[in-house]
Amino acid sequence: MFDKPTLKVVVASGNPVKVSAVLGGLQQMLPHTTIETVSVTVPSGVADQPMTDAETLTGALNRVQNAKEAHPEADAWVGIEGGVDYLQGELATYAWVVIQTEDLVGKARSGTFFLPKAVQELVEQGLELGKANDQIFSRINSKQKGGAIGILTDEVLDRKQLYEQAVILALVPHKNRELYRTQSSNA
């Protein structure tokens, strides 16, 4: 993947924040490569609001598989799934990023932070996190903007930046193919 001058990367989302994060992470890791991103909306196969770490990772993996089926000609497929989970009674949020090429999968989780109690209560009532944020913070479609982290940090850190770092981390096996492919074959 890293030796081609141009890469076609399918991002399994219609959310412009996720597409931008993927492009930003790829550009940082591959500064001399032309990257063409294709956005495709595909199902995650999990709840609209994944409530566990395992469900969130499964959603990202499912998105990658569905994107690959939709665009098998691409060089890589990327799935990003945001989720929540309880840690010591508090609701934390994060995202899983999965990047797959024909022969290798990279996975990474974004930074994690805790949600305010008011947001947690709405999510516990069945509201998706983005809608809960919009309701509590009087926003419109915040998940396609700075997200909860942008709101809570006054945009010092936004959703794109949070996801972009996880994209870079998920690229580590791809950047170090021989190390990771050898590791997989000896397992």
Automatic annotation (TrEMBL):
Enzyme Commission number, as recorded: 3.6.1.73
EC top class named in words: hydrolase
Note on cofactor: Binds 1 divalent metal cation per subunit; can use either Mg(2+) or Mn(2+).
Residues binding substrate: 73-74
Residues reported to bind Mg(2+): 73
Pfam families, per the entry: NTPase_I-T (PF01931)
Keywords noted in UniProt: Hydrolase, Magnesium, Manganese, Metal-binding, Nucleotide metabolism, Nucleotide-binding
Catalytic activity: ITP + H2O = IDP + phosphate + H(+); XTP + H2O = XDP + phosphate + H(+)
Domain annotation Non-canonical purine NTP phosphatase/PRRC1: ranges: 12-173
InterPro entries, per database record: ITPase-like_fam, Non_canon_purine_NTPase, NTPase/PRRC1, YjjX_NTPase
Coiled-coil positions: none
Required cofactor(s): Mn(2+); Mg(2+)
Keyword RNA-binding recorded: no
Function: Phosphatase that hydrolyzes non-canonical purine nucleotides such as XTP and ITP to their respective diphosphate derivatives. Probably excludes non-canonical purines from DNA/RNA precursor pool, thus preventing their incorporation into DNA/RNA and avoiding chromosomal lesions.
Record note on quaternary structure: Homodimer.
Assigned protein family: Belongs to the YjjX NTPase family.
Protein name: Probable inosine/xanthosine triphosphatase
